[in-house]
Amino acid sequence: MNINWYPGHMKKTKESIEKNLSMVDVVFELIDARIPYSSQNPIIDSIVKDKPRIVILNKADLASDKGNKEWIEYFKENDLNTILFNSLTGKGIDELIKLSKEVTAERKKSYEKRGVINRPIRAMIIGIPNVGKSTLINTLTGRKGARVGNRPGITKSNQWIKTKGDLELLDTPGILWPKFEDKNVGLNLAFTGAIKDEILDRETLALRLVEVLGENYPELLEKRYNFEINKDSPLENMISIGRKRGCIIKGGEIDYTKVSNIILDEFRKGIIGNITLEFPKK
User: Fold this and answer.
1) Residue of 169, 151, 188 whose CA lies nearest to 63
2) Bridge pairing between strands 81-84 and 121-127
């Protein structure tokens, strides 16, 4: 499955981030805890440079405990301030506010020396589409301050938003990069919904997901769909799931569209289980 997606607004977003970076004190880089490598945009380092940054592992509640622990250790070993976050429940919000104050302390002193008192911390939030930026903002504000949707790319323009903890956030649209050098990166982004489903073959995508989960989390698949894994045939596993879920059309054939939708939806919502698709490279 070849996946390439780089709409024109992605280029504009990159240019906008570069333009507005001087206005902020800290960058919040939101990545998906299930796929930290794949969801960390490789061009961000070159854009952010030496600006203080906090890496937020969002959707930590959907990832495995083992994965969360290993990624936290990995980022800290690489001198990146990192927290686990669940933007739906707000778990991790206090740690984020505390860390924001710590990494911007010197900049605050500089402002105070120039007579600028009680200036809020200004943060820019960046990340790939559908990683949860708008939900994070809504959690920080306690209101629907930014439009949220299931579909990637719903945030279209920059907007400043006042939040709790003496923070002001500059939201930016999700940004992907021009080409996925590693095909697994494209697949992981597609599995988690970071790439619009409309441009993908969902049946092939679901089959690949069944293959990956069958290799790495067979017990979760078996428990969720109540069948015995065939280690040699992802297609047979998909057919078994379809039969268990009643995805049958005329003639007793499997409704592959229906079963594909079930598998992808239940994976993305964490219904299949807590799953980390990639671990730090050692």
Assistant:
1) 188
2) unpaired
**pTM (2 d.p.):** 0.86
**Cα(50)–Cα(177) distance, integer angstroms:** 21
User: How many Å apart are CA 279 and CA 282, to the nearest integer?
Assistant: 9
Distance CA 82, CA 85 (A): 10
103-142 per-position pLDDT tens digit: 999 988 888 888 888 888 999 888 888 888 888 888 888 7
Model confidence pLDDT, tens digit, residues 135-180: 888 888 876 544 444 444 444 455 678 887 788 888 777 676 555 6
